[in-house]
Amino acid sequence: MTVLVAIRCIHCQSSEVVRHGKSTNGKQRFRCLEPECPYQTFSLNLAYPGRNREVKQQIVEMTLNGSGVRDIARVLHVSTSTVMRELKKTRLSSTRQSKTIESTPATTSRGNNRKGRSRTRVRD
After folding, report:
1. Which among 9, 29, 34, 53 is least surrounded, fewest beta carbons within 10 Å?
2. pLDDT exceeds cutoff 60 at 97
3. Beta strand pairing call for 28-32 and 17-22
4. Quick check: 63 and 87 in contact, CB under 8 A?
């Protein structure tokens, strides 16, 4: 008995999908035929859980709840470097958004000296 499973593109949710060979680790690859799809190929079963969108979102949520990097890595079965990379991405995207919201500060009358300090040094 043959069972047909409808496969949808994980990026654009299109049903226009064909098989596209196998990856190096033996998993079936698929190709989306939709021209507006941002990605052309995908795999249904990801080899590493750190690449999953839900896991990435959990990393951010667990950090906001006060969990440490090593705790998150242990619970989600990912490496600590994956946790750190995702947190850095989140931090960069939040600072970019805040920079676009803020207006550019006006120049001070003190010139380019940092914290108003003069450049001359007094020697004893």
Report:
1. 53
2. yes
3. antiparallel
4. yes
The region that residue 87 occupies, defined by phi over 0 for left and psi between -120 and 50 for alpha, beta otherwise, is: alpha
- pLDDT grade, residue 93 (50/70/90)? confident
Q: Tokens for 4?
A: 């047909």
Q: By the 8 A CB rule, do 7 and 33 touch?
A: no
Q: Domain boundaries in the chain?
A: 8-46, 48-101
Backbone angles phi, psi at 18, to 5 degrees: -125, 160
What are 99-120's pLDDT values in tens digits?
666 655 555 555 555 555 555 5
Class level of CATH domain 48-101: mainly alpha
What the block records as the tokens of 24 is 């190096």
